[in-house]
């Protein structure tokens, strides 16, 4: 899951050489560093919902929850767990 | 009355937080009409200082032009001060419709509707013409008013990397299942001064059946050979479905804006756009002045030609001096400093030299992209700009950044 989301972030938000330049990994801050802002975050949220068959309520799509790929993975897993339960 | 102490404290803490981040905005009081040279009181209480203004949107120098001012006076005398009404109750004079007709002719569209501002035009247009079956695909650097307008609309929101046509094409392919697709962009981007590649955007729009929306606020009146804006610059006049623009920059500088484009879209705005329906008509003096502006621009390209020459001089001068600037053709010329504090320090020193510019940094621009944005005007002249250039060189030399590239400046000052 981590690699799929990292790949999406790279294609959706960064130019070809940028990902390497900043050394993008699961702990790279996305929101607080300005790579993703609230305006462009919408497509990431939609991607996650579609890809993993979950619905993330707006009040959980916070800058904190979306700040790193690691925290995004956590959020998605939580929702998948809820769906399974 | 209930203004609890705890709430007051919370507001004060928020304000303090803004101050601590160094992004607290302070107004500077100008004691003269808007022009290339202005008298400024800053900080509040200080004596007046005559400075060269390099941060106004007064691109054509018409904000205080005698003919424009005289036209506004005439509007005041002949049609009064205000309408005390929204347009559709009793706020429409013949001159409002005349201005809409003249703007339509100027922009080469089918029809036009006036709004109190372009912020309002952008706030109202999307909701009026798009539904939840549609999608809005916007460049990531569009103006804040477009972002707000999109948020008020039920259509799906999507964005593409700034001016990245490959990414836009991907998005258009992805959204072929929607009833309507709208590509949304600024004509000239206000912080970078670069142009949206409208020729390529129109081509993609035709291939993927999408409408094109352009906010031409930083272009109307001067971009293009006769100043009709970025559609003229790229040879796609008549192919843009919606143009929004402002009367608050090159076209007089007071206020007012419009949606101009396809007949049905303009008609729907007249029926449904909330800022149009629930806000007062543009005041008669502004309507008269805007008509005069369009008359001036339709009879001569002298002012936009002078602006173009000033821009070329300024861009060349800064480059030769060794500054890093964003390349482009518009009169918005950002001088890249990358480091936020450096942008503030240099702006302050330039003010001491008699040059009024503002440093911008995150979150107004992307992190690590701090800059001083300069804006040219037809009201500037070459000797004035040559002097300003000397001041820039002195300050640039003081900070040792002349001749340094991006990497060099970041090495010296950090991000």
| Classification by helices and strands of chain A | mainly alpha
CATH class membership of the largest domain in chain B:
Alpha Beta
| CATH fold node name of the largest domain in chain B | Aspartate Aminotransferase, domain 2
Give average pLDDT of chain A, whole number: 89
What is the topology, as strand order, of the major beta sheet of chain B?
4-10-9-8-7-5-6
Largest sheet of chain A: none
User: What oligomeric state best describes the polypeptide chains here?
Assistant: heterodimer
| Helical content band of chain B | 40-55%
In terms of per-residue confidence, which ranges of chain B show pLDDT below 50 for 5 or more consecutive residues? none
Largest contact between protein chains?
A-B, 10 and 13 residues
How many structurally independent domains of chain A? 1
Quickly give the CATH architecture of chain A.
Orthogonal Bundle
Walkthrough of the structure:
The complex is a heterodimer of chains A (85) and B (415). Chain A has 85 residues and is mainly alpha-helical. Chain A has one domain (2-84): Non-ribosomal Peptide Synthetase Peptidyl Carrier Protein, Chain A (Orthogonal Bundle). Chain A has helices at 2-13, 18-22, 41-52, 69-84. The model of chain A has no long low-confidence stretch (mean pLDDT 89). With 415 residues, chain B is of the alpha/beta class. Chain B folds into 2 domains: 29-58 and 302-413, Aspartate Aminotransferase, domain 1 (Alpha-Beta Complex); 66-299, Aspartate Aminotransferase, domain 2 (3-Layer(aba) Sandwich). Chain B is built from 16 helices and 14 strands. Chain B has helices at 5-20, 66-79, 87-91, 94-107, 118-129, 144-151, 165-174, 198-207, 230-233, 263-272, 274-277, 284-299, 302-321, 340-352, 382-398, 406-413, and strands spanning 29-30, 37-41, 48-53, 111-115, 135-139, 156-160, 181-186, 211-215, 242-246, 257-261, 332-338, 355-356, 358-360, 370-375. In chain B, the strands form 3 sheets. In chain B, strands 4-10-9-8-7-5-6 form a 7-stranded mixed beta sheet, with helices on both faces. In chain B, strand 5 (135-139), helix 6 (144-151) and strand 6 form a beta-alpha-beta unit. In chain B, helix 5 runs parallel beside helix 6 (144-151). The longest helix of chain B has 20 residues, at 302-321. The N and C termini of chain B lie far apart (47 Å). Chain A binds chain B through residues 12-13, 15, 33-34, 37, 39-40, 42-43, and chain B through 138, 140, 147, 157-159, 161, 164, 362-363, 366-368.
């Amino acid at each position: 899951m981590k690699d799929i989301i990292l790949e999406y972030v790279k294609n959706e938000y960064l130019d070809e050489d940028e990902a390497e330049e900043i050394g993008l990994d699961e702990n790279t801050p996305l929101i607080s560093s300005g790579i993703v802002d609230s305006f462009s975050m919408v497509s990431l949220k939609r991607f996650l919902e579609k890809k993993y068959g979950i619905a993330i309520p707006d009040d959980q799509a916070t800058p904190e929850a979306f700040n790193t790929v690691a925290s995004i993975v956590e959020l998605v897993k939580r929702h998948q767990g809820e769906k399974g339960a | 009355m209930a203004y609890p102490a705890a709430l007051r404290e919370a507001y004060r803490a928020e304000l303090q937080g803004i101050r601590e981040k160094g992004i607290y905005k302070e107004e500077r009081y100008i004691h003269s009409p808007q022009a290339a040279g202005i008298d400024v009181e800053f900080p509040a209480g200080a004596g007046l200082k005559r400075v060269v203004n390099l941060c106004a949107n007064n691109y054509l120098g018409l904000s205080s032009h005698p003919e424009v001012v005289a036209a506004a006076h005439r509007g005041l005398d002949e049609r009064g001060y205000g309408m005390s009404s929204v347009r559709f109750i009793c706020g429409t004079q013949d001159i409002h419709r005349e201005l809409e007709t003249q703007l339509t002719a100027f922009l080469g569209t089918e029809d036009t509707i006036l709004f109190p501002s372009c912020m309002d035009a952008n706030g109202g247009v999307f909701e009026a013409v798009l539904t939840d079956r549609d999608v809005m695909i916007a460049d990531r650097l569009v103006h804040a008013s477009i972002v707000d307008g999109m948020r008020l609309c039920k259509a799906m929101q999507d964005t593409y990397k700034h001016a990245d046509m490959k990414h836009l094409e991907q998005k258009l392919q992805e959204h072929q299942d929607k009833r309507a697709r709208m590509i949304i962009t600024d004509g000239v981007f206000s912080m970078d001064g670069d142009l949206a590649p409208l020729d390529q955007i129109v081509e993609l729009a035709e291939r993927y059946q999408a409408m094109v929306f352009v906010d031409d606020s930083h272009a109307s009146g001067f971009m293009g050979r006769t100043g009709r804006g970025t559609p003229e610059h790229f040879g796609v006049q008549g192919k843009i479905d919606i143009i929004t623009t402002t009367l608050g920059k090159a076209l007089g500088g007071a206020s007012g804006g419009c949606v101009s484009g396809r007949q049905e879209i303009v008609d729907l705005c007249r029926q449904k756009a909330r800022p149009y329906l629930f806000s007062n008509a543009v005041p008669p003096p502004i309507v008269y002045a805007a008509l005069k502006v369009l008359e001036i621009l339709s009879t001569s390209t002298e002012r936009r030609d002078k602006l173009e020459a000033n821009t070329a001089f300024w861009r060349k001068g800064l480059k030769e001096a060794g500054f890093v600037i964003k390349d482009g053709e518009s009169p918005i010329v950002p001088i890249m400093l990358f480091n936020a504090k450096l942008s503030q320090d240099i702006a302050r020193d330039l003010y001491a030299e008699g040059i009024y510019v503002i440093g911008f940094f995150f979150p107004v621009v992307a992190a690590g992209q701090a800059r001083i944005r300069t804006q040219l005007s037809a009201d500037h002249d070459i000797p004035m700009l040559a002097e300003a250039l000397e001041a820039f060189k002195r300050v640039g030399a003081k900070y040792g950044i002349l001749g340094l590239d991006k990497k060099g400046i970041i090495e010296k000052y950090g991000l």
